[in-house]
Specification:
Largest sheet: 7 strands, antiparallel
Strand order of the largest sheet: 11-10-9-8-7-12-13
Strand content: 15-25%
Length: about 325
Amino acid sequence: MFGLAKILTERGVLGLNHRNAGYTLWHNPRHLYPLVDDKLTTKRLAEEAGLAVPKLYGVIQIERQVRGLSELLKPYQDFVIKPAEGSGGDGIIVITGRRGNRYRKASGQFMTQEDLDHHVSNILSGLYSLGGHQDKALIEYRVKFDPIFESISFQGIPDVRIIVFLGVPVMAMVRLPTRMSDGKANLHQGAIGAGIDLSTGQTLSGVWKNEIVHEHPDTEQPITGLQIPHWDILLREAAQCYELTGLGYQGVDLVLDKVQGPLILELNARPGLNIQIANRAGLLPRLHMVEEQAERLTTLEDRLNFAKQYFGTQHI
């Protein structure tokens, strides 16, 4: 692990303090944070801009609306309930089907209507929100992941994280749920992060529990050399989020639905730094290149072409 840290330092790894002082503080005005911290606001912004997001079935905003939850859910066999201002996947419940008056979770366990009502009440109380203040519960379409991920994902939905700086995609990874992560695409909980070549959309080696891996620990299938479907669309939608929010440095999380294709899941004004380990490369050289060339990258096409030309493994 020390050897890997040395390699990353030599390659210009971006540290937490440097990210905060040099990028999020400088390029992300605080008054814009609510645009990404509130998933409902993000969803509405994306829809207005013509970007695809999981369909919203309903919103529970106050406690007395919880009494109508069962009626709201009647038309749907499967759905997702999540806090509008949650983070790290906390508070998210994925319902994959029903049996009688019970709801089946992705893990196979069942919940009653009373269980769901109680969970939504906890969301409203702020149990899962970033600041612990009152929140809203979103009920939305359950993503069915693209079949290409079937052999390298455990139960949950893989997602693609793309770091966008001044409208230029600079680094990407796919996060693969594992048994350890309980089906969540969260690296801190035990998911795998596999780097992605920005030029080709092919996966590189991955990181799991801070170790470099080439196979999924549960399925034992290779995670390297996988072609991410719709890669150009994913890059384009991520880059468009710069105009969407005005944030200069952000993480864009997308999913690949087997029917609807790429969907924007959420945005993050303080994206984590493990993406560098997944790519075995530092962010700093790429960020500096964008800063140096920013004045000439005036269109979306300019920014996409620049990313694919300079941030693929062939160039690096």
